[in-house]
Here is the input.
Amino acid sequence: MSNYHIKHLEEYFQVYRKSVRNPEVFWEEIAEEHFMWRKKWDAVLNWDFKKPEVTWFQGAQLNITENCIDRHLQTRGDKTAIVFEPNDPKEKALHISYKELYERVNKFANVLKSQGIKKGDRVCIYLPMIPELAVALLACARIGAIHSVVFAGFSSTALATRINDSDCKMVITSDGSYRGAKTIDLKSIVDEGLESCSCVETVLVVKRIHNSIQMKEGRDKWLQPLLDEAYGECAPEIMNAEDPLFILYTSGSTGMPKGMVHTTAGYMVYTAYTFKNVFQYKEEDVYWCTADIGWITGHSYIVYGPLANGATTVISEGVPNYPDWGRFWEIVEKHKITQFYTAPTAIRALAKENLSYVEKYDLSSLKVLGTVGEPINEEAWHWYNDNIGKKKSPIVDTWWQTETGGIMITPIPFSTPTKPTYATLPFPGIQPALMDENGQEIHGNQVDGRLCIKFPWPSMARTIWGNHQRYKETYFSAFENMYFTGDGALRDEVGYYRITGRVDDVIIVSGHNLGTAPIEDAINEHPAVAESAIVGFPHDIKGNALYGYVILKETGESRDHDNVRKEINQIITEHIGPIAKLDKIQFTSGLPKTRSGKIMRRILRKIASNETENLGDTSTLLNPEVVQEIMDNVL
Ligand code: WTA
Here is the structure.
């Protein structure tokens, strides 16, 4: 018997020990007892981090939508699978039962088929947070098409890059989206992007805001009339355990985003098992994660993990401050939310507002609170604990990544004693290691180092789409026989982990991963810019904000600097999206460089963060004099 549901600390340790001593037996029991298979596996695990190659449940056959929908129909057919809470509180919320979800997914799957989509084809989904977004993911999975969701805040250029990288045949979008009091014309962003994509044959358009939009003859089709004609049953495609389920892009330290590939069986088993335990989900609970399905958090913990457990999961379309800053708590009261999972950046923004927005609502339904995406500072943790959890609901600070597919280091609520700013202990099956700069593992407690994982886990990304070499170099080359996370961490006196932040060229702004390279590439497109470097600096709400150092050409020097600043942010918005805009732009005559020509971002980061007492040795720089100039003119 597997310990599917961990209920106290001793049990956690017992389960953890078992998961490490005999990982294959451990995962096999869970897979066997809690999922529906068309055929069982030949081997639980094969792995070789040197290649790197990892497979879980090789030889097994299944369809993840049978696990997320079909098997619940008997016992939970009328139970609500998805609650949709619209942007505008005056619009009625929608309750979609498992039966209704079954019908929606099957019809949508038949529409995809009628448009020529087959197993293995890539489908790009660029939608706001509406039920059709979740249904589109599941419809792809039903027929074995690989979905690639692009967050609907990305620009047309960023969208086109992602569509082309994975050769998507179809785009699913909408006539627009609501965002607080504003609307966004998503369809024209898609139209613009598609000017540089020749792979896309069909665009399916969901009607959401009733905007009048351009429909390109032969390419663009309204979804609803196709659904109206579609049959409500679509036999699930039988997938192999290691068939790709989806691609999701994440930023890296070079310009090109990395299309992380997740496969079917391992991803399903891990997201379902983590969901159950990290949120201590019980049958009657109503779970709400405020992330966007455009990010991994939404894939794993709005759609697949909850539905695989037959849970009720909330999809909310709006923003935390519309119509006012009480919106989150209004939703908690209205739907009697039991588990609430959000980002530290949202907590910090909410904590700045008057407490009356919180006090107006009854939050007594809450049992477990969660955070994800970036380190949570102590002040925000306490605000969340005191005012939202009323010191009764444990906070799970969950550390994980797009690459890991599921939660890796986290407290188990009601089992693991929490500690502010600590993600605490590894989830069963996860074997973390801290490494020093010489590639040696650092043993013992009260130490810090680079965070690696020593052993495979079922939901790890298997490759980067079209570029296995980059996968190897990014994750398996820094330390021998280890997966390198790119994060730094410390381990305290009792073995709790605290994530200290990225040690590479990725900056986390409001919980979004941004690589320095694509932003610098965008800035350098400005005709007056000669060179640029960006770094992160601490920001009250966003955690980090972006600081740009820019060298202007002569043509730029003579211009009004504030106008150039605006133009730079405009270009960034066009290339990546508004999330990557710079908060501060300092013009400088040079950038500190090593003798091999590499920009010393460490120095720039310290100056931008006002930590100039200890800049380290600058004498080895190619141009040490520029450091003083930059310090004198810091913004
Ligand atoms: C950071 C999000 C501290 C970390 C699921 C990681 C965190 C990156 C935490 C992945 C946390 C995520 N505490 N830092 N609880 N959770 N991070 O791919 O730097 O969007 O490497 O996945 O976010 O971000 P991603």
